[in-house]
């Protein structure tokens, strides 16, 4: 049986990142210091900590993709439809400005635009 995710988190006072969870002492492991209120194992110089609770979920109980398709068919559509008023107005303004500028540029560079503006090549 392999160790749980909580076992692989390292010792208190340090964040322990491992690229290979099964190879505990491999050369790919590195440590970063982090602020923590828990002393190193066996250190009695600090006051006892109380009220520190850590909850973890077993990797065998996690179901990351449960209901992903069914959830997005209904709830995702509802959530996206609720956001439409916030992005459709800026999109319409931007698209309208873009099409106006393209038409105006094409007209100004045409023969009729040069004659109307009084510019000649």
UniProtKB/TrEMBL annotation:
Q: What is its main location?
A: mitochondrion
N-terminal signal peptide: 1-28
Its record classes its membrane topology as: Single-pass membrane protein
One GO biological process this protein is involved in is:
mitochondrial electron transport, ubiquinol to cytochrome c
Q: Which family does it belong to?
A: Belongs to the UQCRQ/QCR8 family.
Query: Which protein are we looking at?
Result: Cytochrome b-c1 complex subunit 8
Q: What does this protein do?
A: Component of the ubiquinol-cytochrome c oxidoreductase, a multisubunit transmembrane complex that is part of the mitochondrial electron transport chain which drives oxidative phosphorylation. The complex plays an important role in the uptake of multiple carbon sources present in different host niches.
**Its quaternary structure?**
Component of the ubiquinol-cytochrome c oxidoreductase (cytochrome b-c1 complex, complex III, CIII), a multisubunit enzyme composed of 3 respiratory subunits cytochrome b, cytochrome c1 and Rieske protein, 2 core protein subunits, and additional low-molecular weight protein subunits. The complex exists as an obligatory dimer and forms supercomplexes (SCs) in the inner mitochondrial membrane with cytochrome c oxidase (complex IV, CIV).
Q: Name one Pfam family in it.
A: UcrQ
Mention any one GO cellular component term assigned to this protein in its UniProt record.
respiratory chain complex III
Q: Where is this chain's protein located in or outside the cell? A: Mitochondrion inner membrane
What species is this protein from?
Suillus subaureus
PANTHER family, per database record? CYTOCHROME B-C1 COMPLEX SUBUNIT 8, UBIQUINOL-CYTOCHROME C REDUCTASE COMPLEX UBIQUINONE-BINDING PROTEIN QP-C
Per UniProt, the keywords (alphabetical) are: Electron transport, Membrane, Mitochondrion, Mitochondrion inner membrane, Respiratory chain, Signal, Transmembrane, Transmembrane helix, Transport
Task: Enumerate the transmembrane spans.
Answer: 84-101
């Amino acid at each position: 049986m392999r160790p749980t995710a909580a076992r692989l988190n390292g010792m208190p006072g340090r964040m322990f990142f491992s690229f290979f969870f099964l190879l505990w002492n491999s050369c790919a492991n590195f440590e970063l210091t982090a602020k923590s209120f828990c002393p190193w194992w066996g250190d009695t110089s600090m006051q006892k900590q109380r009220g520190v609770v850590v909850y973890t979920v077993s990797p065998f109980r996690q179901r990351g993709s449960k209901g992903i398709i069914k959830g997005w068919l209904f709830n995702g559509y509802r959530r996206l439809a609720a956001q439409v008023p916030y992005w459709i107005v800026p999109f319409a303004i931007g698209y309208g400005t873009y099409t106006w500028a393209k038409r105006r540029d094409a007209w100004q560079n045409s023969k009729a635009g040069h004659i109307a503006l009084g510019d000649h090549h």
